[in-house]
Specification:
The protein has 3 helices and no strands. By secondary structure, it is mainly α. Helix 1 (about 5-25) packs antiparallel against helix 2.
Length: about 150
């Protein structure tokens, strides 16, 4: 007998058994029909796995290899992504903190120097001028004719 014809007959037999389980569900008892159908389906899965391994012996090996490769890629991808994210975050945090500290310190120092220069300039103006705009110190002790100091 031709192996392809034998496989086709076995597939038809499993199809017939599944049809019998549907009839059992509809007529006799739902639980009995479901149990019979699950048993037939499980036997059919075993048959398909056996048939695949017979026609292509490397089928199961390739399938397992692919599943393992996918799992490793997913796990390694997540691990590498997490590690890189943590490293970049820590490095960036340090760099930004140092850069911000230097920038703020430099800006505050520059502004402080500007303010100090302005204050010194204003002090010189105040020391060197009277309120009326005349230079000199004669206006402090000057008395006015009306008696005010």
């Amino acid at each position: 007998m031709n192996p392809a014809r034998a496989d086709a007959l076995v597939d038809l037999a499993y199809g017939g058994l599944i049809a019998v389980s549907i009839v059992l569900i509809a007529t006799v008892n739902t639980n009995i029909g479901i149990a019979f159908g699950v048993g037939v389906f499980a036997a059919y899965v075993v048959h398909v796995v056996w048939k695949m391994s017979r026609f292509d012996p490397e089928w199961m090996t390739r399938t397992v290899e692919e599943a393992v490769e996918e799992q490793i890629e997913a796990t390694m991808g997540e691990t590498v992504e997490d590690t890189v994210e943590q490293t970049v975050e820590a490095t960036m945090e340090e760099s930004v903190e140092e850069s911000m500290e230097e920038t703020v310190e430099r800006t505050v120092s520059d502004r402080l120097d500007e303010v100090q220069t302005r204050v010194e300039s204003l002090d010189e103006r105040v020391d060197g001028e009277s309120p009326t705009g005349e230079t000199g110190e004669g206006s402090e002790g000057t008395k006015h004719d009306d008696g005010r100091a």
